[in-house]
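Example for tutorial group B:
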């Protein structure tokens, strides 16, 4: 065997120095490449939120940017979300994006065709989504504390729209209710939830563009006083529960259910609207404000100061609206204050105690001595028309429970016997399918209305032959 020869100390030191120098140079090259790559990526990804001064002299022409970075630039330019920033910092950045990415190709001296395709329409005057001049205001529909709603028309596709124009004040920024409403509605796609078409943001206003629905349940009931046709009540309630079931499964509470916030189309389609007070409910439960829901539709637990609630909050409102549609008057029309509202509820459902409502004595505003002691009654004693419709009183009683945990959930309510004479296909519809796509399902004419307004065959007449 050959013996191994140990290198001399001087030679070994020389080799080590050479190896160290080689490694050092390699690491330096790697670091420089990473730094260049990171800088390119930072300039591209941050273009959507700020100006990029001097970017022309640093960023490579588009034709030499890797494919993954091209996609990132195009996505930034073609979409705009005004809700990525806090309410007080929302600003228009669309035109600034154009300035940042509209650089020239060094080889041709022309704007890259890929950028041009995404940054400008085929014609400079063509209307497009996201632009204020793409919609024509036709008439004012209503005005609130921070927004005005107009009927409008889209110049892009010619369809009628509802324009909710929210006034912005420089020192206050975008109202949080508008941010909440738009951010929630962007992710909700259901036939029984109003559709958000577009968002337009300018320095002075934020405009939410919704599908146009010609009336709401409040106006519909005002037009048909004394209670609605029982079959129409059933269809409206089914659609309301269908929309609520959809949002509740996504841990979203509406928190402001009332007839004014339930839109009714000319075909009878009901749509949940006005999500300004809606809240995405995380798990585990959080504490929320008790200043929610219009007084007449506010549940007793919230009236008594509870801030820990779940989907049961909305279900109380469903019960109130159900009774109002059948009876023709509000279920609990408090005329004075919260005390008066609670008295009206307890008069029908009974004054609660620890036996009927565990934990009620611990609620902030519950003082037993302040309330008259009432015993519970059958709901038909308060609202006689509930007895005219099979299973209506039972469903209403399971929705109008003082103890929140006893209230029926939306999916459970959809399977109540009250709906047993509806066509089974209604439970098989996809989210975006209307109940009126099921054969023979349509509204009945209300009292005094012409049958021609609803077609020859009525929904009620067809039910006996539609169970399949």
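The residue assignment follows.
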């Amino acid at each position: 065997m050959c013996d191994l020869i140990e290198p001399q100390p001087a030679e070994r030191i020389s080799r080590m120095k050479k190896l160290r120098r080689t490694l050092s140079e390699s690491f330096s090259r790697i670091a420089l490449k990473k730094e260049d790559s990171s800088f390119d990526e930072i300039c591209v990804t941050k273009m959507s939120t700020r100006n990029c001064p001097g970017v022309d002299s640093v960023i490579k022409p588009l034709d030499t940017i890797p494919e993954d970075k091209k996609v990132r630039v195009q996505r930034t330019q073609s979409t705009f979300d005004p809700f990525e920033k806090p309410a007080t910092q929302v600003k228009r950045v669309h035109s600034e994006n154009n300035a940042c990415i509209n650089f020239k190709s060094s080889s041709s001296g022309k704007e890259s065709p890929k950028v041009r395709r995404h940054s400008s329409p085929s014609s400079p005057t063509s209307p497009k989504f996201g632009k204020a001049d793409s919609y024509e205001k036709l008439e004012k529909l209503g005005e609130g504390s921070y927004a005005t709603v107009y009927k409008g028309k889209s110049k892009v596709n010619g369809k009628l729209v509802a324009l909710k124009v929210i006034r912005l004040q420089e020192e206050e920024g975008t109202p949080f209710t508008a941010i909440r409403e738009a951010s929630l509605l962007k992710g909700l796609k259901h036939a029984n939830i109003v559709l958000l078409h577009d968002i337009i943001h300018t320095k002075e206003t934020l405009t939410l563009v919704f599908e146009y629905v010609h009336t709401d349940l409040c106006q519909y009931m005002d037009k048909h006083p004394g209670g609605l046709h029982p079959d129409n009540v059933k269809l409206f309630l089914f659609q309301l529960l269908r929309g609520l079931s959809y949002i509740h499964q996504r841990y979203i509470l509406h928190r402001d259910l009332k007839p004014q916030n339930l839109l009714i189309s000319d075909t009878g389609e009901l749509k949940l609207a006005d999500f300004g007070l809606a809240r995405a409910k995380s798990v585990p439960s959080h504490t929320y404000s008790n200043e929610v829901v219009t007084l007449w539709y506010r549940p007793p637990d919230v009236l008594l100061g509870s801030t820990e609630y779940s989907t049961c909050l909305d279900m109380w409102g469903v019960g109130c609206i159900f009774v109002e549609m059948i009876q023709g008057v509000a279920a609990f029309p408090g005329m004075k204050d919260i005390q008066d509202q609670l008295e009206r509820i307890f008069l029908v459902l009974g004054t609660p105690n620890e036996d009927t409502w565990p934990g009620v004595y611990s609620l902030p505003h519950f003082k037993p001595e302040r309330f008259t002691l009432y015993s519970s009654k059958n709901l038909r004693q308060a609202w006689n028309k509930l007895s005219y419709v099979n299973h209506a009183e039972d469903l209403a009683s399971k929705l109008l429970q003082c103890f929140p945990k006893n209230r029926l959930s939306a999916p459970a309510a959809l399977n109540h016997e009250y709906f047993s004479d509806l066509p089974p296909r209604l439970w098989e519809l996809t989210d975006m399918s209307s109940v009126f796509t099921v054969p023979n399902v349509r509204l009945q004419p209300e009292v005094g209305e012409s049958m021609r307004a609803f077609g020859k065959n009525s929904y009620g007449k067809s039910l006996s032959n539609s169970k399949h």
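Residues 1-7, 33-122, 282-293, 450-468 have pLDDT under 50 and may be disordered. Compare this with the pattern of hydrophobic and polar residues in the output above.
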